Amino acid sequence: MWRAAVTVGLMLGLCAAAVAFEEASNPFGRVQSGMLNIEQPYVDKSLTNRYYDYGGDTMIRNDRYIRLTPDKQDKRGSFFSKVPLIPGSFQVEFEFRIHGQGSSIYGDGMAFWLLDRAPNEGPVFGVEDKFNGLGVFFDTYKNDRPGRAFPYVMAMLGDGRSSYDNEHDGAANEIAGCSARGLHNSDRNARARFTFVKDGFMALELNYKSKGVWETCFHTTDVPGLPVPSYMGFSAQTGELSESHDIISAQVYQLTQPPTSFAQYDELVNGRKPAVTADGKGSSGGGGGGFGAWLWWLVKSVFYLLLVAGVAYLAFTLYRAHKRKNRDGYIL
């Protein structure tokens, strides 16, 4: 009997430690949505993908990339899911590359989409105007946007009636955005991480300058209502100027325990505490590493290791008491 109790106690302690480790390394309960992931090989022998459609000038090299447009003039391409994403709280992380022969003049850019349906081809980064849903645009050519350095990344919510403000690079439609100088022809593949917390916040982080360092492009509590369901996709376009737009991979996660604020998310994931401004309000700072997140993981791990050690000590105490009882019985 005592052996069974000790074994159960040890197993419970180890399970608690495993759960704590998982919570510390995955603080918001990310659960991968495998059907929407984009990974090699992108198409099968029949040149189709079970969960995605592609069109326009998209070219696929199974061992390297999905090229939405080549570095040629007047090209459009897209890659859109057949399976809907049910908007709740989720995160999409994707790897991409924007590159070409042009070193100072190039265009036009690419987009990440969450729309009510797979769109037709059109003039807004390769898809039709007056779309219904959210677009995040990686705009590489400046038309008329004073005070903004390009490439420029911005989010827009389409209501199915409003047109994209192409003449002013989306100024009339912008929810939030940031300059991303150096994104074109960067030294390494770029990564973007889009986080959407229903009734909470929306954020975009970029990683293209230093390996492992995520910079906040934007975060806002002005959270748009997404179409239900939403179809995820990518598109790109070139015009008189050109560049290549490649999608390398994408992972989609549901957040089962979403953060309550971007500040909480940024601290736990990136180790950045919100900076205090002159008015006493917090704002997310740039740069940074993962020290805060690492320290939190260490504290929780040590706590649960102590718990396991306590269970082990209790088991040893029970064992010693059992041996003493047997020994005393022989003496009698």
Structural commentary:
The chain has helices at residues 2-25, 262-270, 291-331; strands at residues 30-32, 52-56, 59-61, 65-69, 76-81, 90-99, 109-115, 121-124, 132-139, 152-159, 174-179, 190-197, 201-207, 215-220, 231-237, 244-255, 275-276, 282-283. The protein is an alpha+beta fold and 332 residues long. The strands form three sheets. Strands 1, 3, 4, 6, 12, 13, 14 and 16 form an eight-stranded antiparallel β-sheet that branches. A seven-stranded antiparallel β-sheet has the order 2-5-15-7-9-10-11, with no helix packed on it. Helix 1 packs antiparallel against helix 3 (291-331). The longest helix is centred in the C-terminal third of the chain and has 41 residues, at 291-331. It starts with a helix and ends with a helix.
